[in-house]
Amino acid sequence: MKDTHDVFLTGRHAAAFLLSGIVKEFDDPFEASLPSDANYMAFREGCIDFSSVPLANTAPYISKADALAVAELVGVGLPLEVAVANDETRRCSRRLHCRTHPASAPQGYYFQAADELYCAAPELTLLVCARQLADVELLVLACLFVSIFTHDLSSQQKLAPRRKLTNVVRIERFIDQCGTSCTKRPPALQRLQRLMPYVVEDAASPKEIECALRFGLARDVGGCGFGMPLMNVPIKITGTTRVRYPDLYWSKEGVAVDYDSKQEHSNSDALENDALHANDLAAAHVQRYVLTSGQLNSMLLFNRVANQLAYDMDGAEKIPNNRSLHATQNCLAQDIRNAFKKFGY
């Protein structure tokens, strides 16, 4: 069988590539078309359109130098996790760890990232990673794939806006397509499908995702049980041309939460904008709460804010002063933060 230099990244290496600031380059034409005075978030509905590429039917090959270059590019060491069409084309070495394309998944969920280098699409990457990751890690990864931020290539300490890589509808459509190609859905596909109702779209930072999961998930897994909020949803302010985007928003209850870090709100202009933002939401009959970094990092203070939210949510129960529940909450918070570290945030 003839070797090919075409390498198809999958698993953790595909996830690292997709989450890197490099992928933002695929979005450059979109950003260039925005009006100079446009609100970026108002254009967030679109997804980056990756063209579909079929998986090669020949065995992969890559030189040591090229393998090291790819590993450095994505920030994950060797061996590279790559996809192959069938068991006959697998060839594992110190450079490559071949994984057979999931039998349940449709073909063609790859895109060209560089010359002779291809990458699994976000939907397929989630399915492959579902066999490797814990539930919270997989949920965080899915939230990152449908978020509207990435690393700023000029500084890993900063974030840059981007269109989301995919959305919940696309992922669910992919899951449905997988279900038609097998009589029994494999455990990884079942896990991914089970977690989809808890994936939040359009988060603009890792902290927003953490807030949404800790407020929204059920109490038996360490959340507050409020249900999953909408993220950065537009709220038009009557009588003005202004549109507000609260970080978290429970539309039925009319309750919003904004995460307020000192770094983002430390000058007078920012404080003035915050005040106008709060007044606009009040005019739209939205009860707004602010969660600071100190409150997010303290379980006692976090639960105080949660109990304030519960007061404005019909049928929501307050967080009981229960040691077992607090331990579960701490475990969830730590698992979420460990997951972000795993994915480079």
Please provide a written account of the structure:
- The protein has helices spanning about 10-20, 30, 65-75, 120-130, 135-145, 170-180, 185-195, 205-215, 270-285, 295, 300-310, 325-340, and strands at about 5-10, 80-85, 95-100, 110-115, 115-120, 150, 155-160, 230, 235, 245, 250, 255-260, 285-290.
- The chain has about 350 residues and is α/β, with parallel strands linked by helices.
- The strands form five sheets. It has a four-stranded mixed beta sheet with strand order 8-11-12-13, with helices on both faces.
- The protein is globular and about 60 Å long.
- The relative contact order is 0.12.
SSE-based structural type: alpha/beta
- The total tally of domains equals 2
Sketch the major β-sheet.
Answer: 4 strands, mixed
| Helix content range | 25-40%
Quaternary status = single chain
Reading the helices and strands in chain order gives EHHHEEEEHHEEHHHEEEEEHEHHH
The chain-level mean pLDDT equals: 89
Shape: globular
Distance between the ends: 41 Å
- Taking pLDDT < 50 over at least 5 consecutive residues as the criterion, the unreliable ranges are none
The number of distinct β-strands equals 13
Strand content: 15-25%
Computed over alpha carbons, the radius of gyration is 22 Å
Feature tags:
single chain; 345 residues; alpha/beta; 2 domains; 4-stranded mixed β-sheet; 3-stranded mixed β-sheet; 13 strands; globular
In short:
This protein has helices spanning 11-19, 28-32, 64-74, 122-129, 135-145, 168-179, 187-195, 206-216, 268-283, 293-297, 299-312, 323-342, and strands at residues 7-9, 80-84, 96-100, 110-114, 117-120, 149-152, 155-161, 230-231, 235-236, 243-244, 248-250, 255-260, 287-292.
